[in-house]
């Protein structure tokens, strides 16, 4: 065992200093993928990864208020974009370091970069200053934070070694620990469009991440949430910013608002700004309805060089007009018959968005920020024949794919009822 631990230390060091070749790194990762790690080895891997770069130290007077959340990735998942400013409006400090989308899940950075001028490549020093001053920053991973993960994740991605509990734990928790946070909420997705298709595997990942993060002194709660149909109504980068902004103005879809309020409530109670999760969730909800969360979002956009004036149009009516690209084609998807919506297949929706250009199929590939889909119905919506189910915004003119997206919608003859996305708490 001691030998294996020594091996983990040397492995992470050799990944960071480049003394191991890509083939050797993949071989070592494949061994972990096949045989797993026990919990003390997973803790060691995570700590070594965290310490491969800078670990942020916050001024003592604010360090207990520093929080973050992370999602394992979903379709239409824009929770972070509404949650981070809402938390800051409630007094928390949020240095949110996010990733780019790859494959069918979108990335928070790609969505934010649809705001003209918005910079996500912010050095650590600037991140610390911005969070100390306004309470929130949403940025990308820099060269100096967890460099071991940058290389390991890229190699796992090209060699099919992503879906491993110890490797995902090391990757996610090391990045959050390097932010120097006190409390963390992890949104572990399960379902057809999630990494973890089965609830039991999502729970296994949640227990692993929680025990490792708590062992590193971070108060951690994991939510297990369903990822079978898209979150909210918008899928596609700028369309998701518009929906996030609508949520920040108290006009968001109920499933998105629930995820924002519950995760925010858990964090506010973990750091003592709320007496319990219910109180914390009410504080977050108030910040969405009284305009303070939206004000924080605008402050963040300005601080990071974004054109906040595009959101000025009319805060009481519709806050994202400046992001809608009027040059796009739009195609409506119509229902074939009367009934109630029983399923909206997130994988089919995400695959179409990928084909439209909203996502990337290889690391570093470019994306189209404007294209995407607005879904006009939700689970349980009554629909009539020829009613519009969704509108696809695209550049391609007509294509079979646009009409095939009808298959993503299942219409039942029996009434259907939406249920909460939250399946469990760990
Ligand atoms: N997201 C990460 O940051 N790392 C993983 O390993 C999986 C998802």
Secondary structure elements and their pairing?
Elements: H1 2-17, H2 22-35, H3 39-50, H4 60-63, E1 67-71, H5 79-89, E2 94-98, H6 108-112, H7 124-134, E3 136-140, H8 147-158, H9 165-178, E4 183-190, H10 199-215, E5 219-226, E6 234-235, H11 237-248, H12 254-270, H13 277-289, H14 292-303, E7 329-334, E8 339-344, H15 346-356, E9 372-375, E10 382-383, E11 388-394, H16 400-404, E12 409-412, E13 422-425
Parallel strand pairs: 1-4, 2-3, 4-5
Antiparallel strand pairs: 5-13, 6-9, 7-11, 8-10, 8-12, 9-11
Helix pairs in contact: 1-3, 1-8, 3-9, 3-10, 5-11, 5-12, 5-13, 5-14, 9-10, 12-13
Uracil is lined by residues 72, 99, 153, 162, 167-168, 171-172.
Task: Give a structural overview.
By secondary structure, the protein is of the alpha/beta class. The protein has two domains: 63-314, Pyrimidine Nucleoside Phosphorylase, Chain A, domain 2 (3-Layer(aba) Sandwich), CATH 3.40.1030; 328-412, Pyrimidine nucleoside phosphorylase-like, C-terminal domain (Aldehyde Oxidoreductase, domain 3), CATH 3.90.1170. It has helices spanning 2-17, 22-35, 39-50, 60-63, 79-89, 108-112, 124-134, 147-158, 165-178, 199-215, 237-248, 254-270, 277-289, 292-303, 346-356, 400-404, and strands at residues 67-71, 94-98, 136-140, 183-190, 219-226, 234-235, 329-334, 339-344, 372-375, 382-383, 388-394, 409-412, 422-425. The strands form four sheets. It has a four-stranded mixed beta sheet, sandwiched between helices. A four-stranded antiparallel beta sheet has the order 6-9-11-7, sandwiched between helices. A three-stranded antiparallel beta sheet has the order 10-8-12, with no helix packed on it. Helix 5 packs parallel to helix 11 (237-248) and helix 5 (79-89) crosses helix 12 (254-270). The longest helix is centred in the middle third of the chain and has 17 residues, at 199-215. It starts with a helix and ends with a strand. The relative contact order is 0.14. The mean pLDDT is 92.
